Amino acid sequence: MKKLRFSARINASTEKVWDLLWSDVTYRQWTSVFSEGSHAVTDWKEGSKVLFLGPEGEGMYSTIARKIPNEFMSFKHLGVVKNGKESPLDDETKKWSGAMENYTLKETKESTELSVEIDVTEEMLDYFNETFPKALDKLKALAESRTMES
User: How many CB atoms lie within 10 A of CB 87?
Assistant: First the structure.
């Protein structure tokens, strides 16, 4: 697996960026870049399960490995959800099971520096290198348009 890193400087507080990242309505907006209808089913508590799903109920299941509100969120991706159920690990899933996805927020004087580190398989490198920056651009636009309004 390869570790990819992405970052964005967002002109909003860490609290606002955090809320936009993990609130249901805005999570669906910024992750729509990956797949229209993307959403997460969880209570967002450390140690809890997360179902990252598309509109048909397919996706992956993970756990929240670490959570420090407004600073850090870490997911450990475990397996695939098919037909609304967690599937046993197959050879393809074993290639990435255990992959980590980490979000770090650091407040500067006038903005938040959001850094994302994600473990990906060789087959997914191009997809994430192309798509993740678009997702962060969408998140930045959401945060900054809402900052202007408030």
Answer: 14
pLDDT in tens, 63-105: 999 999 999 999 999 999 998 889 988 998 999 999 999 999 9
- For residue 110, what pLDDT is reported? 87
3-state secondary structure of 59: strand
Structurally, the chain folds into a number of domains equal to 1
Residue 87, domain CATH:
3.30.530.20
Query: What distance in Å separates the CA atoms of residue 105 and residue 13, rounded to the nearest whole number?
Result: 10
Residues 90, 122: Cα–Cα separation, whole Å: 18
Averaged pLDDT, 110-114: 95
Here the tokens at position 71 are 């600073």
Indicate the DSSP class of residue 83.
Answer: T
Say yes or no to pLDDT of 149 above 50: no
Angle at 121 between CA 116 and CA 127, to 5 degrees: 65
CB 51 within 8 A of CB 64: no
Q: Which residue has the tokens 């650091």?
A: 106
pTM for the predicted model, two decimal places:
0.93
Q: Which structure tokens are listed for 68?
A: 């420090």
Where in the sequence is the domain holding 43, given as residue range(s)?
2-149
